[in-house]
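Sequence design from tokenized structure. All designs in this work follow the same two-part layout: the structure record, then the generated sequence. An example of the structure record is given first.
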């Protein structure tokens, strides 16, 4: 079976090559609006940022997205990007807790069977 090729993109801040899913894409649409493209397929000029709060902060401070996309980036875009990153972190933590709870439940079930 043929392995599916994983798309790689470069972060405009760190210059690291990462898997596309590990990056946020900020897009300037043809009508001049700026948005965060979570699907990775929105029409327009895009730039990729690593999903890291420090990277978002540096992008805001250096205004690199404004130079690349040639448009003013509203503060809300950076806030939204931070929110996406924080929610993904929270999701991973929550998912890990559920996995731990399932494991504890499994061991308690096995322990109960051995005691009785």
């Amino acid at each position: 079976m043929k392995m599916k090729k994983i798309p790689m993109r470069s972060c405009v801040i760190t210059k690291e090559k990462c898997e596309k899913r590990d990056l946020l894409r900020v897009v300037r649409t043809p009508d001049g609006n700026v948005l965060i493209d979570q699907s990775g397929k929105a029409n327009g000029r895009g730039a990729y940022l690593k999903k890291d709060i420090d990277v978002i902060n540096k992008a805001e401070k250096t205004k690199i997205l404004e130079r690349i996309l040639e448009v003013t980036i509203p503060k809300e875009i950076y806030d939204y990007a931070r929110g996406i990153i924080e929610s993904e972190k929270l999701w991973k933590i929550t998912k890990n807790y559920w996995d731990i709870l399932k494991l504890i439940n499994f061991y308690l079930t096995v322990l109960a069977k051995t005691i009785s």
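Strands lie at 8-10, 17-19, 23-28, 34-37, 45-50. We note this feature because it recurs in several other targets discussed in the main text.
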